[in-house]
Amino acid sequence: MPIDAEKALAAPPVRTPVTWDDHDVRLYHLALGAGVPETGPDELRYVHEGHERGLQVLPTFGLVAGGTGGVGFEVFRTPGVDIDLAAVLHGGQEITVHRPLPTAARAVTVTRVRDVYDKGKAAVLVQESTLRTEDGTPLITQTNHVFVHGEGGFGGPRGPRERLPPPDRAPDLVLDVPTLRQQALLYRLTGDRNPLHADPATARRAGHDRPVLHGLCTFGMAVKAVTDHLLDGDASRVAGCRTRFAGVFFPGETLRLRVWDTPDGYRLTAGAADRADTPVLTDARVTARPARRDRPRGRTTL
Q1: Which of 197, 214, 228, 229 is catalytic?
Q2: In 3D, which of 64, 77, 107, 19 has the Cα closest to residue 194?
Q3: Which of 45, 88, 186, 193 is exposed most, by the fewest CB atoms within 10 A?
Q4: What does DSSP say about strands 173-178 and 238-245: parallel, antiparallel, or unpaired?
Protein backbone atom coordinates (compact mmCIF):
# COMPACT_ATOMS: atom_id res chain seq x y z
CA MET A 1 0.00 0.00 0.00
CA PRO A 2 1.50 3.38 -1.02
CA ILE A 3 0.32 4.91 2.29
CA ASP A 4 1.75 3.31 5.41
CA ALA A 5 -0.33 5.04 8.08
CA GLU A 6 1.78 3.80 10.99
CA LYS A 7 5.01 4.99 9.42
CA ALA A 8 3.54 8.34 8.36
CA LEU A 9 2.20 9.09 11.84
CA ALA A 10 5.50 8.14 13.48
CA ALA A 11 7.64 10.25 11.14
CA PRO A 12 9.43 13.24 12.69
CA PRO A 13 8.17 16.73 11.78
CA VAL A 14 9.55 18.38 8.65
CA ARG A 15 11.13 21.80 9.28
CA THR A 16 11.15 24.23 6.35
CA PRO A 17 12.75 27.70 6.57
CA VAL A 18 10.71 30.52 5.02
CA THR A 19 11.28 34.23 4.56
CA TRP A 20 9.10 37.01 3.23
CA ASP A 21 8.94 40.77 2.97
CA ASP A 22 6.38 43.45 2.13
CA HIS A 23 6.78 42.75 -1.60
CA ASP A 24 5.48 39.20 -1.08
CA VAL A 25 2.61 40.49 1.07
CA ARG A 26 1.53 43.10 -1.47
CA LEU A 27 1.74 40.60 -4.34
CA TYR A 28 -0.41 38.12 -2.43
CA HIS A 29 -3.10 40.69 -1.71
CA LEU A 30 -3.11 41.89 -5.32
CA ALA A 31 -3.55 38.25 -6.40
CA LEU A 32 -6.70 38.13 -4.25
CA GLY A 33 -8.07 41.22 -6.03
CA ALA A 34 -7.06 43.87 -3.48
CA GLY A 35 -6.58 47.46 -4.62
CA VAL A 36 -10.06 48.12 -6.02
CA PRO A 37 -10.62 51.03 -5.93
CA GLU A 38 -6.96 51.86 -6.23
CA THR A 39 -7.29 54.99 -4.07
CA GLY A 40 -9.52 53.50 -1.37
CA PRO A 41 -7.87 53.92 2.07
CA ASP A 42 -8.94 50.46 3.24
CA GLU A 43 -7.67 48.81 0.05
CA LEU A 44 -4.36 50.65 0.28
CA ARG A 45 -3.77 49.02 3.66
CA TYR A 46 -3.30 45.77 1.73
CA VAL A 47 -1.05 47.04 -1.05
CA HIS A 48 0.78 50.22 0.00
CA GLU A 49 3.70 49.84 2.39
CA GLY A 50 3.59 53.59 3.13
CA HIS A 51 -0.02 53.67 4.35
CA GLU A 52 -0.49 55.87 7.41
CA ARG A 53 -1.76 52.94 9.49
CA GLY A 54 0.82 50.56 8.05
CA LEU A 55 0.61 47.60 5.71
CA GLN A 56 -1.57 44.83 7.12
CA VAL A 57 -1.38 41.11 6.42
CA LEU A 58 -4.28 38.71 6.00
CA PRO A 59 -3.66 35.51 8.00
CA THR A 60 -4.21 33.44 4.85
CA PHE A 61 -0.91 34.84 3.58
CA GLY A 62 0.74 32.45 6.03
CA LEU A 63 -0.27 29.60 3.70
CA VAL A 64 1.97 30.93 0.93
CA ALA A 65 4.65 32.71 3.00
CA GLY A 66 8.07 32.16 1.54
CA GLY A 67 6.66 31.12 -1.83
CA THR A 68 5.61 27.72 -0.49
CA GLY A 69 2.73 27.60 -2.95
CA GLY A 70 -0.13 27.25 -0.53
CA VAL A 71 -0.80 24.28 1.65
CA GLY A 72 2.84 23.39 2.21
CA PHE A 73 2.41 19.82 0.99
CA GLU A 74 5.46 18.57 2.87
CA VAL A 75 3.21 15.58 3.51
CA PHE A 76 4.46 14.14 0.21
CA ARG A 77 7.99 14.05 1.62
CA THR A 78 6.85 12.08 4.67
CA PRO A 79 8.03 8.47 5.10
CA GLY A 80 5.17 6.09 4.46
CA VAL A 81 3.54 8.38 1.87
CA ASP A 82 4.15 7.35 -1.75
CA ILE A 83 1.19 8.50 -3.81
CA ASP A 84 0.26 9.64 -7.29
CA LEU A 85 -0.33 13.39 -7.28
CA ALA A 86 -3.00 12.93 -9.94
CA ALA A 87 -5.08 11.14 -7.30
CA VAL A 88 -4.81 13.99 -4.80
CA LEU A 89 -7.55 16.49 -3.94
CA HIS A 90 -7.22 19.35 -1.48
CA GLY A 91 -10.34 18.80 0.60
CA GLY A 92 -10.28 21.44 3.31
CA GLN A 93 -8.23 24.06 5.10
CA GLU A 94 -8.22 25.55 8.59
CA ILE A 95 -6.11 28.30 10.18
CA THR A 96 -5.71 29.23 13.84
CA VAL A 97 -4.15 32.66 14.26
CA HIS A 98 -1.89 32.96 17.30
CA ARG A 99 -0.77 36.52 16.49
CA PRO A 100 -0.97 38.83 13.47
CA LEU A 101 1.58 38.12 10.76
CA PRO A 102 4.40 40.65 10.36
CA THR A 103 5.03 42.27 6.98
CA ALA A 104 8.53 40.77 6.88
CA ALA A 105 10.09 37.85 8.75
CA ARG A 106 12.45 34.92 8.85
CA ALA A 107 10.50 31.95 10.05
CA VAL A 108 10.14 28.19 9.88
CA THR A 109 7.23 25.84 9.28
CA VAL A 110 7.07 22.70 11.40
CA THR A 111 4.88 20.12 9.67
CA ARG A 112 3.67 16.63 10.54
CA VAL A 113 1.02 14.14 9.51
CA ARG A 114 -1.46 14.34 12.37
CA ASP A 115 -4.02 11.74 11.25
CA VAL A 116 -4.66 9.22 8.49
CA TYR A 117 -8.31 8.31 7.85
CA ASP A 118 -9.84 5.49 5.82
CA LYS A 119 -12.85 6.67 3.82
CA GLY A 120 -13.31 3.40 1.96
CA LYS A 121 -12.47 4.41 -1.60
CA ALA A 122 -10.07 7.13 -0.47
CA ALA A 123 -7.59 7.89 2.26
CA VAL A 124 -7.40 11.27 3.98
CA LEU A 125 -4.11 12.63 5.23
CA VAL A 126 -4.46 15.38 7.81
CA GLN A 127 -1.39 17.60 7.79
CA GLU A 128 -0.71 20.11 10.55
CA SER A 129 1.84 22.87 10.10
CA THR A 130 2.80 25.67 12.48
CA LEU A 131 4.50 28.80 11.19
CA ARG A 132 6.95 30.05 13.83
CA THR A 133 9.39 32.93 14.06
CA GLU A 134 13.08 32.12 14.40
CA ASP A 135 12.80 32.35 18.21
CA GLY A 136 9.97 29.79 18.21
CA THR A 137 7.00 32.15 18.61
CA PRO A 138 3.97 30.62 16.86
CA LEU A 139 2.20 32.80 14.30
CA ILE A 140 -0.40 30.52 12.75
CA THR A 141 -1.22 26.83 12.81
CA GLN A 142 -2.79 25.48 9.64
CA THR A 143 -4.42 22.13 9.04
CA ASN A 144 -5.21 20.78 5.61
CA HIS A 145 -7.01 17.64 4.54
CA VAL A 146 -5.57 15.78 1.55
CA PHE A 147 -7.91 13.27 -0.12
CA VAL A 148 -6.09 10.51 -1.99
CA HIS A 149 -8.43 8.58 -4.28
CA GLY A 150 -7.98 4.84 -4.47
CA GLU A 151 -5.95 4.55 -1.25
CA GLY A 152 -8.69 3.67 1.24
CA GLY A 153 -9.79 0.30 2.50
CA PHE A 154 -6.82 -0.35 4.79
CA GLY A 155 -8.93 -0.73 7.93
CA GLY A 156 -8.11 2.56 9.60
CA PRO A 157 -10.49 4.92 11.43
CA ARG A 158 -12.95 6.89 9.29
CA GLY A 159 -12.34 10.07 11.25
CA PRO A 160 -14.81 12.65 12.57
CA ARG A 161 -17.51 14.24 10.46
CA GLU A 162 -16.72 17.92 10.80
CA ARG A 163 -19.46 19.79 8.98
CA LEU A 164 -20.65 23.36 9.52
CA PRO A 165 -23.94 23.76 7.66
CA PRO A 166 -25.29 27.30 7.36
CA PRO A 167 -28.18 28.35 9.60
CA ASP A 168 -31.68 27.58 8.38
CA ARG A 169 -32.50 31.20 7.60
CA ALA A 170 -31.67 33.90 5.12
CA PRO A 171 -28.06 35.11 5.20
CA ASP A 172 -27.20 38.35 6.95
CA LEU A 173 -24.98 39.43 4.09
CA VAL A 174 -24.84 38.51 0.40
CA LEU A 175 -21.82 39.81 -1.46
CA ASP A 176 -20.74 39.36 -5.07
CA VAL A 177 -16.97 39.44 -5.60
CA PRO A 178 -15.82 39.73 -9.23
CA THR A 179 -12.58 38.12 -10.38
CA LEU A 180 -10.17 38.76 -13.23
CA ARG A 181 -9.74 36.31 -16.11
CA GLN A 182 -5.99 36.38 -15.43
CA GLN A 183 -6.38 35.97 -11.66
CA ALA A 184 -5.04 32.41 -11.58
CA LEU A 185 -1.93 33.59 -13.45
CA LEU A 186 -1.44 36.27 -10.79
CA TYR A 187 -1.99 33.87 -7.92
CA ARG A 188 0.55 31.42 -9.35
CA LEU A 189 3.22 34.04 -8.57
CA THR A 190 2.67 33.34 -4.87
CA GLY A 191 4.22 29.90 -5.36
CA ASP A 192 1.61 27.37 -6.53
CA ARG A 193 2.64 26.68 -10.13
CA ASN A 194 0.40 23.67 -10.72
CA PRO A 195 -0.27 23.76 -14.50
CA LEU A 196 -3.95 23.05 -13.81
CA HIS A 197 -4.26 26.77 -13.13
CA ALA A 198 -2.54 27.98 -16.30
CA ASP A 199 -2.31 25.35 -19.03
CA PRO A 200 -5.49 24.69 -21.04
CA ALA A 201 -4.34 21.19 -22.07
CA THR A 202 -3.73 20.18 -18.44
CA ALA A 203 -7.13 21.57 -17.46
CA ARG A 204 -8.84 19.58 -20.23
CA ARG A 205 -7.13 16.37 -19.10
CA ALA A 206 -8.58 17.05 -15.66
CA GLY A 207 -12.07 17.42 -17.16
CA HIS A 208 -12.33 21.22 -17.22
CA ASP A 209 -12.98 23.50 -20.18
CA ARG A 210 -10.19 25.87 -19.09
CA PRO A 211 -7.79 26.43 -16.19
CA VAL A 212 -9.38 26.79 -12.77
CA LEU A 213 -8.64 29.23 -9.96
CA HIS A 214 -6.73 27.97 -6.93
CA GLY A 215 -8.97 26.93 -4.05
CA LEU A 216 -6.76 28.85 -1.62
CA CYS A 217 -7.27 31.97 -3.73
CA THR A 218 -11.07 31.77 -3.39
CA PHE A 219 -10.60 31.05 0.33
CA GLY A 220 -8.38 34.12 0.71
CA MET A 221 -10.91 36.24 -1.18
CA ALA A 222 -13.68 35.09 1.16
CA VAL A 223 -11.64 35.87 4.29
CA LYS A 224 -10.75 39.30 2.89
CA ALA A 225 -14.41 40.03 2.12
CA VAL A 226 -15.48 39.17 5.68
CA THR A 227 -12.61 41.27 7.04
CA ASP A 228 -13.55 44.26 4.89
CA HIS A 229 -17.30 44.19 5.40
CA LEU A 230 -17.69 42.82 8.93
CA LEU A 231 -14.43 43.44 10.79
CA ASP A 232 -13.89 47.11 9.94
CA GLY A 233 -11.21 46.14 7.43
CA ASP A 234 -8.89 45.11 10.28
CA ALA A 235 -7.07 41.86 9.41
CA SER A 236 -5.61 41.61 12.92
CA ARG A 237 -9.10 40.79 14.22
CA VAL A 238 -9.24 37.44 12.38
CA ALA A 239 -8.73 34.75 15.02
CA GLY A 240 -9.32 31.74 12.78
CA CYS A 241 -10.87 30.58 9.53
CA ARG A 242 -11.74 27.32 7.82
CA THR A 243 -13.42 25.93 4.71
CA ARG A 244 -14.15 22.82 2.71
CA PHE A 245 -13.45 23.01 -1.02
CA ALA A 246 -16.66 21.89 -2.70
CA GLY A 247 -16.16 22.66 -6.38
CA VAL A 248 -14.15 24.42 -9.05
CA PHE A 249 -14.21 28.14 -9.77
CA PHE A 250 -13.02 29.71 -13.01
CA PRO A 251 -11.10 32.99 -13.27
CA GLY A 252 -13.37 35.78 -14.51
CA GLU A 253 -16.44 34.44 -12.75
CA THR A 254 -18.19 36.18 -9.86
CA LEU A 255 -17.86 34.62 -6.42
CA ARG A 256 -21.12 34.94 -4.49
CA LEU A 257 -20.68 34.89 -0.72
CA ARG A 258 -23.46 34.31 1.78
CA VAL A 259 -22.60 35.09 5.39
CA TRP A 260 -24.45 34.40 8.64
CA ASP A 261 -23.57 36.01 11.98
CA THR A 262 -23.74 33.18 14.54
CA PRO A 263 -22.60 32.74 18.16
CA ASP A 264 -19.58 30.72 16.99
CA GLY A 265 -18.45 33.18 14.32
CA TYR A 266 -19.34 34.18 10.78
CA ARG A 267 -20.44 31.12 8.83
CA LEU A 268 -20.33 31.39 5.08
CA THR A 269 -20.72 29.63 1.79
CA ALA A 270 -19.45 30.64 -1.64
CA GLY A 271 -20.78 29.75 -5.05
CA ALA A 272 -20.15 30.58 -8.69
CA ALA A 273 -22.81 33.21 -9.44
CA ASP A 274 -22.33 32.70 -13.19
CA ARG A 275 -23.22 29.00 -12.88
CA ALA A 276 -26.40 29.07 -10.81
CA ASP A 277 -24.44 29.40 -7.54
CA THR A 278 -22.66 26.07 -8.00
CA PRO A 279 -20.96 25.45 -4.61
CA VAL A 280 -17.29 26.43 -4.36
CA LEU A 281 -16.72 26.78 -0.60
CA THR A 282 -18.84 25.12 2.08
CA ASP A 283 -18.60 24.48 5.82
CA ALA A 284 -16.70 27.76 6.12
CA ARG A 285 -16.31 30.02 9.12
CA VAL A 286 -14.34 33.09 10.20
CA THR A 287 -13.93 33.78 13.91
CA ALA A 288 -12.94 37.21 15.14
CA ARG A 289 -11.39 39.07 18.03
CA PRO A 290 -13.18 42.10 19.50
CA ALA A 291 -12.51 45.44 17.84
CA ARG A 292 -9.68 47.48 19.29
CA ARG A 293 -11.01 50.49 21.15
CA ASP A 294 -8.37 52.79 19.67
CA ARG A 295 -9.43 52.05 16.09
CA PRO A 296 -12.30 54.13 14.66
CA ARG A 297 -14.99 52.12 12.93
CA GLY A 298 -14.66 52.68 9.20
CA ARG A 299 -17.23 50.27 7.78
CA THR A 300 -20.81 49.28 8.27
CA THR A 301 -21.38 45.83 9.75
CA LEU A 302 -24.45 43.63 9.56
Answers
A1: 197
A2: 64
A3: 193
A4: unpaired
Q: Is the pTM of this model over 0.85?
A: yes
CA distance 124 to 90: 10
Whether 120 and 153 have beta carbons less than 8 Å apart is answered as: yes
Catalytic residue among 24, 192, 234, 283: 192
Its domain, for residue 262, covers: 5-288
| Residue 94 confidence (pLDDT) | 97
pLDDT digits (tens, 9 = 90+) for 231-265: 999 999 999 999 999 999 999 999 999 999 999 99
197 as an active site residue: the answer is yes
The CATH number that applies at residue 29 is 3.10.129.10
Q: Tell whether 280 is covered by a domain.
A: yes
Q: How far apart are CA 177 and CA 222, in angstroms?
A: 9
Known catalytic residue at 192: yes
